[in-house]
Each structure stands twice: as C-alpha cells, then as structure tokens.
Please model this.
Amino acid sequence: MSDVDRVRTDPDSYIHPDLSVPDAVALELLALSICEHTHNSGGVTIRLAVTGPSTGVIEDSGRGMRLEPDPGDDMAHAERALTSIYPVGSASPDVDAVLGELIWGSHGSQGPIVANALCSAFVFQSRRAGEVWEQCYRRGVAEDPACLVGATDRTGTQTRFLVDSGLAGKSVLDLVVLRERIAALCARIPGLDVELIGD
Model:
C-alpha cells in the first residue's frame, strides 16, 4: 500500500485529533509556510484564502520548493514530498513544539502528503530561480510531471486545494477554527503574520 493510500484509508491517524479533515488540510499547508518563515531571516508573507466551502489557496513568499531530485532519488523533490511521508521541520525546536500542539498532533509532522492525499484536486506551484513550475494532483497522485509555466522575479509557493468530500465527515472549512488556530500560532511564533481571507 502506498503512503497516499495509507493516509486516505485512515486520515485520523495522520491529522490532529481536534481538527476536521478540511481544517487539517488547510493547517498542514500553513505549517509548511510557517517552517519556511523560520528558515528565512526576514520572514515570509503568508496568505490563506478560503475560496469556497471546501476550497482554498495558500501562498507564501519563501524560497519555493526544489524540483530537482534529492541525492539518490529519481523523483523531483516536490513530488516526493507531496506523495510520501516526508516530515518537515522549522528552524526552531520551540516552533516545532507549537506546530505539534496546534497542527500536527502528537505524531509530529508527516509532511505535505497529508494535505495532498486528502484532496480530490490539488495544484502545487513553485516559484524559484526565476521560474514558475506547476504540478496537478488528484487524490494524492500526480496527473503529470511538473511543468514550467512561466517566469517570475518572485519566490515562494502557492497551493490551490479542494478537500475530498468522500473522506471528510465534515467537508466544509471552518473559519472560526482557522482564525483561532492562526491567532494562537501568530501569538506564539516570533514575527509570524498570517493573512486569512474568507467570509
């Protein structure tokens, strides 16, 4: 069984026990951007836009995710991280503890696969080294290899997601929960500022 299938078969083992699947998806992606924030001495801008009942976009101004494979691997780094258990961490044990408490749960980071696997549609875009690369996924599986879609003078990542309603007991993003978690994260992580957009 693949890591994606494991997450999809038993989501509760991979998300925070206090979070619904939709809220866990948004917050797992937010955790990636927060980790990037801690690795950047000037911090990064982070925006989470809830664009529909179970859809959203998260964007940051970090370094962008690498597309080249890790040493000894034949898969692009971004695709490997999105399709297998690939824990991420911040530059600070204290921040990791906060992320564990508010987003990951006691199991710690399992990586962006958790969000990807729990979405029926997931579009990942990386801006790095002057290039914009994009890759589309369905239920955690890449539809095609990443492709170059443009040039840019910016860096960072953007992810558009649609939570898989077939997996969620509750398939709607809860803005109250997201606001509360984001406020708690910003209060406890130095320099963190997350813009949340939604009605």
In short: The beta strands are 46-52, 55-60, 119-128, 131-138, 141-142, 147-151, 156-163, 194-197. The first strand starts at residue 46 and ends at 52.
